[in-house]
Amino acid sequence: MAYSNKIRETYLEQLKGIQDAGIFKQERFIHSSQAADIEVEFPTGSSLKKVINMCANNYLGLSSHPDVVKAAHEGLDSRGYGMSSVRFICGTQDIHRELENKVTEFLGTEDTILFPSCMDANAGVFEAILTDEDVMISDRLVHASIIDGMRLCGALHDTFKHSNMDHLEKKLQLHADKRLKVVITDGVFSMDGDTAKLDEMVDLCEKYDAMLFVDDSHSSGFIGTTGRGTHEKCGVMGKIDIITTTFGKALGGASGGCVSGRKEIVEMCRQKARPYLFSNTIAPVVVSGVLKVLDILLANTERRDKLEKLTEYWRKGLTEAGFVLKDGDTPIVPVMLFNAKLAQDFSKDLYDEGIYAIGFFFPVVPNGAARIRTQISAGHEIHHLDKALAAFIKVGKKYDILGKSKQEIIAAYGL
After folding, report:
1. Would residue 383 show up in a list of annotated catalytic residues for this protein?
2. The domain containing residue 44 runs over which residues?
3. Core vs surface per residue 4-33: b (16+ CB within 10 A) or e
4. Is residue 255 exposed (0-12), middle (13-18) or buried (19+ Cβ within 10 Å)?
5. What is the DSSP letter of 290?
6. Same domain, yes or no, for 73 and 214?
7. pLDDT at position 3
8. Per the domain annotation, does 9 fall within a domain?
9. Last residue of a domain, one of 299, 320, 348
10. 29-30 vs 257-261, strand pairing mode
11. Are 200 and 237 within one domain?
12. Catalytic residue among 190, 220, 347, 377
């Protein structure tokens, strides 16, 4: 079928509308390994610029750690480049089960199953364990991959107001007649940086005989006193029925994810989860790298402790400078700007000052909630944060937002 001019014009018109609104997403190309200091080509074709990376999910600074890179090389040499198969045919090596066992130990669960990504884990788990006799009750701010996974499932879907336990209880009461009920939440919400009230949620799930699902992608490795995640922070280890998480953030930063939790649920995923059954296995080189990451984390908490201190320093500096921040105590620190074009312009000015931090706006965040989402890494040092803070203050003065309230910023720039 010919790709007609009419079809082309339809898309070009949509793209022009995005560009005219000043919210066009442009790719930026990193010409170095992932670290606190990186070299970036932006816009395409421009000279490389050395900048401080303030927006990576590299929370523990392990993406380019020499021991992890070495382990990946050893995995490549000993187990090859790829499996060329799904798990249940001929895509499972001994190291895949070794990683599953180590993740189970680290998270304090009963069993674990690997997926090509956490997005695949979220896409597969609900359909594998629920039917149209069941109900999914999710926090209204859960990650997009969870929403996509729920869409693939035939169970009824309902929501509760963000972190509102009274509203959640009403929904559990409303759906008391369902065969199975699963409450669904992020551990740390990736856009806002706040933590789910897992202790209260566990109590409600026990009271109403419901399961609890937690996506801990922005928590595993650094939240909690030993970095196990939000279930450790909230004192409910062993009480979460389903945990999904990624190896693409703090746990090495490459790719891959998992479902970890009750043995029966993990086995149902092994039997029925479509991304597990129909996607290639995680590459051996990645498995070997993640195994080394877990060895590093099990040895001591030095990196998560450093990350915690840097996060406190960064949040304090931004607050004293007069920025509007989202409340929280995680390494995700959103600087609220509310206007999408302002977020884009602010980000570009930061880049000119040598700071790499991206503007977020609809549909990544709700309309009127545009922001610069900053993320701290154990790879940062105080001098990185001091330079970044100076740049934020300089750009903040340019747009006259320092010390201004949400209402004042919206009055000046609109939603």
Report:
1. no
2. 31-60+302-413
3. eeeeeeeeeeeeeeeeeeebeeeebebeee
4. middle
5. H
6. yes
7. 81
8. no
9. 299
10. unpaired
11. yes
12. 190
Q: How far apart are CA 389 and CA 376, in angstroms?
A: 12
Whichever domain contains 338, its CATH number is 3.90.1150.10
Pair (392, 340) in one structural domain: yes
Domain shared by 160 and 113, yes or no: yes
**Exactly one of 96, 143, 249, 380 is catalytic; which is it?**
249
Total tally of structural domains belonging to the chain? 2
Residue finishing a domain among 247, 270, 299: 299
The answer to pTM > 0.85 is yes
Let me know how long the chain is. Answer: 415
Helix, strand or coil, per DSSP, at residue 115: strand
Least Cα distance to 137 among 231, 204, 234 occurs for 204
Residue 115 and residue 92 in one domain: yes
Does residue 103 sit in the same domain as residue 241?
A: yes
Q: Where are the beta strands (DSSP E) in 363-408?
A: 370-375
Residue 21 included in any domain: no
For this structure, is 404 an active site residue? Answer: no
Give Cβ neighbours of residue 336 (< 8 Å, ≥ 6 apart): 323, 324, 325, 326, 369, 370, 371, 406, 409
Q: For the chain, which residues score pLDDT lower than 70?
A: 1, 22
In degrees rounded to 5, what are phi and psi of residue 265? -70, -45
| Domain presence at residue 142 | yes
CA-based angle 191:134:152, to the nearest 5? 55
Domain-embedded: residue 378: yes
3-state secondary structure of 174: helix
* β-strand partners of 212: 183
The span from the CA of 407 to the CA of 389, in Å, is: 23
Active site residue 218: yes
Which residue's structure tokens are 């970095």? 227
- pLDDT at res. 1: 57
Q: Are residues 85 and 36 in the same domain?
A: no
Short-list 268, 230, 278, 249, CA closest to 125: 268
For 300, half-sphere exposure in the C-beta direction (CA atoms, 13 angstrom radius) is: 4
pLDDT at 340: 92
Beta bridge partners of 386: none
Catalytic choice (218, 231, 233, 384): 218
CA 111 to centroid of chain Cα atoms: 22
Largest separation between any pair of C-alpha atoms in the chain: 62
For residues 216 and 249, what is the distance between their CA atoms, to the nearest angstrom? 11
Measure Cα distances from 196 to 22, 62, 161, 319, 398 in Å: 34, 25, 12, 23, 36
